[in-house]
Structure formats: structure tokens, C-alpha cells
Amino acid sequence: MRLRLTIAYDGRQYAGWQSQPAGNAVQDFIEKAFREIAGTRVAVHASGRTDAGVHALGQCAHVEVFGSMEAGDWQSALNASLPPTIRIVGARSVAPDFHARFSAKGKVYRYLVRNTPVLPPHEFGRVWHVPHALDVGALRRTAEAFTGRHDFAAFSANRSKAARETVRTIRKIALSLRTGLIALTFEGDGFLYRMVRMLAAAMVRVAQQREDLDTLRARLAKGAPKWNHVAPAEGLYLVRVLY
Description:
The protein is α+β, with helices and mostly antiparallel strands.
């Protein structure tokens, strides 16, 4: 049976999603839980990576399992074996051709900014604390500039293997503000390495009057030069994967 898993995790103590030699990534813990239950290695294929410190509300993965256990039984057994900061929040059987990565049509990310002089202690490690006032109108104007189909090469970090195609479509960037907590929600057909964190950093710098919006528009038009400001990982959440 092919299982589709919806996974939530607090990323603060993990080395990102992808398996690491030290065994301290989210994927390592989930595969370890499968091994304890099934008695054999089960490969977990996710929709994509998240960096160290990044959180997830709705990461998606698929696995091939054998035996008589139903999807709900797997969910219960996995949660009993996983640390409390990783939860399987959904599990169901899917068609054999479903692939968590290649079947995806898009993703939704949310970036949280605490814009008050004092950071509430329960938000430590879960938001980006920006204590000085931000121009919300400038945030909205920058969001409008980034929305649409653009070459985001300037707003992506280098990996060992660079992306061959850097054109992406951001369908919308929604902004909400409640009692000093700003939520920037990005929905797009795909995102480059660290792209959301770079866009969030750009939006905040414009709202601080430390960056000119026309300069950012020029970077979009040219795909260069590289933007070198990255918002902290702890403010970023993978909300859901779209299929």
C-alpha cells in the first residue's frame, strides 16, 4: 500500500528535513519509527526539503508499506514512536502513481514576524523578532511586486547543484496583522532554495526604508544581482502542499 502522510514538526531541534549522517533530521526520525514498526527500512519520500530550524504544519510524504495495517493504524503507531515535536497529522492510502514531490502542483509557506518591542517568550524560536516599526503599506507594495511570474534567480541561494530553471509563479502573497504579529503567506507553483526567506527579508527591509522597491523590481527583471539578505529560519512554516 502506498501511504500519503501529512506531517507537522517543530524544526528548532532538527537539521532540516533531509536525512543527515548524524541522524538528526526529521526524515531520519520518521524512517527510524517505520523501521521499529515494520522491522525493515522504509524509504520516506517528501514533497521537498526544509532547512534546519524551519517548521512544518503540512509537509507531505509518501511511503510503500506492506502487511495488514490500515492507514490509521500506521498513523497511530508512528506517533507512538516519534518524538513529540514530530507528528503524523494525516495518513491515507493513495494510488500507486502518487508521488509526494512530482505530483505536487504548488506549495503554501507562511513567514511570521513579531513586530513589537518585546518578544513574547512562548514565540522564541518560532518567529522573526523585528522590534522597530514597519510600514505595512510598504510590505503590501513589495508583496504586489513579487506576485506573478518572474525569474527569481536573484532571490535564491546557491546549493551544490544549482537550479536549472529559476522562473517561478507566485500566485499570491497575503498579509495579515494581528496584535503585532505579521503573517506573510506565499502561495506558488514552486520555490527555489531559501527563496521565501529572501523575499521575506526583502519585504521587511523595504518596510524599514532600508531598501528601495524599484531596486528589487530591477533585480526581478534581470534575475541579478544576487540578493544577500536571508530572514531567519525560525519564522518560516511549510503550511501545505497543493495537489
